[in-house]
Prior knowledge:
Elements: H1 9-15, H2 42-49, H3 64-77, E1 81-85, H4 88-96, E2 105-109, H5 114-121, E3 130-134, H6 139-145, E4 150-156, E5 158-159, E6 164-165, H7 168-178, E7 182-185, H8 190-193, E8 203-207, E9 221-225, H9 238-241, H10 252-256, H11 260-273, H12 279-289, H13 292-311, E10 316-319, H14 333-336, E11 344-349, H15 352-362, E12 367-368, E13 378-380, H16 392-397, E14 404-408, H17 414-428
Parallel strand pairs: 2-3, 2-4, 4-7, 7-8, 12-13
Antiparallel strand pairs: 1-9, 5-6, 8-9, 10-11, 11-14, 13-14
The structure holds pyridoxal-5'-phosphate.
Amino acid sequence: MTDTPHYGFDTLQVHAGARPDPATGARQVPIYQTTAYVFRDADHAAALFNLQEVGYIYSRLTNPTVAALQERIATLEGGAGAVCCSSGHAAQIMALFPLMAPGRNIVASSRLYGGTVTQFSQTIKRFGWSAKFVDFDDHDAVAAAIDDDTRAVFCEAIANPGGHITDLDAISAITDAAGIPLIVDNTSATPYLCRPIEHGATLVVHSTTKYLTGNGTVTGGCVVDSGKFDWAANDKFPSLSAPEPAYHGLKFAETFGPLAFTFHGIAIGLRDLGMTMNPQAAHYTLMGIETLSLRMDRHVQNAMTIAKWLENDPRVDYVTYAGLDSSPYAKLVPKICPKGAGALFTIAVKGGYDACVKLVDSLEIFSHVANLGDTRSLIIHSASTTHRQLTPEQQIAAGAGPNIVRLSIGIEDAKDLIADLDQALAKAVS
Ligand SMILES: *Cc1c(COP(=O)(O)O)cnc(C)c1O
């Protein structure tokens, strides 16, 4: 099923990218467990290698099961194309790779998943890239941070761990004025709650590990291209606009138009960086996406019930859930994520670091894990785990101070989750 913008989200999450298997009629997308594909003849092989014909060569680049998932995610996000890869962090590198060069920088939100802060503040330096971290509530500061070497602006729609919402319309107005692509990590929101491309995002990245798969089985990532950015408007993005020596001088932007970024991601990114998603992972994620809207509705409903209960509990100092009327981000919910503010938020526990550690150790239904977006409810004390590599200042800026725990609310019975939190808070906070 392709080119079906008139179908609703619930239909597309089940059908987009999939069609009965042409060889067998298999109704579910088969797991094409193969490394290579037989060429019809030598001319066919040459055309594939020259990018003159689209087809399957080798599963580091393309695989039919992965391709079905790519098309499904691109459709749900309203993008022109998508490239799946081995993890969310791989997707971030895959998104930046065609844009960046030594000496170039990105402007990134200070409220990001802890691993992303580490990737951007430490690891990308080895490529000669750098990141400037800015508070994305301060739009003037975002605009001021963009300089001649800036090649992308990066934020999360609903920021991990605090559940803060980014005003994507305001940020994309800034990136449009600067002629710089806006990359939005939509992991915590999913395309069911937020469609960043409709708010001006150029690229959307996902850790499919989280809500898209939804059941904590496989890691994966995806880069969705809106197809709307003019890479050839100036000479800032030569990987996409200038002749590519590895393909006989082909220019991606000229040859592939709105699919330039996607083709580059496969033909250069996956070919040379090799961060490939395997077909088994794509299968699990396709299974998960079929029920995305059903799960997200329940995640949001449970998160709202539990956040309200926690907000009124004297053992809790504050709750950051943007769905609460008390949140400074509540006014952005109808605009940015009209179906709800997700199911990820933090609470400040009275008693600080020690109480947080006791809380995570006392819970019975909630699991203490470094993951989110599972059907199961999860909790983590970020300061001693995911955000451990950050400086205390970075931890606080990221909403992950020592007195903070992050909750990822699952789809269990809300009353059971509340009872679990109640008994564990009783042990943690005296
Ligand atoms: C988990 C996560 C990532 C990294 O994804 P992996 O699949 O673990 O590599 C990036 N961004 C956000 C918001 C995440 O939650």
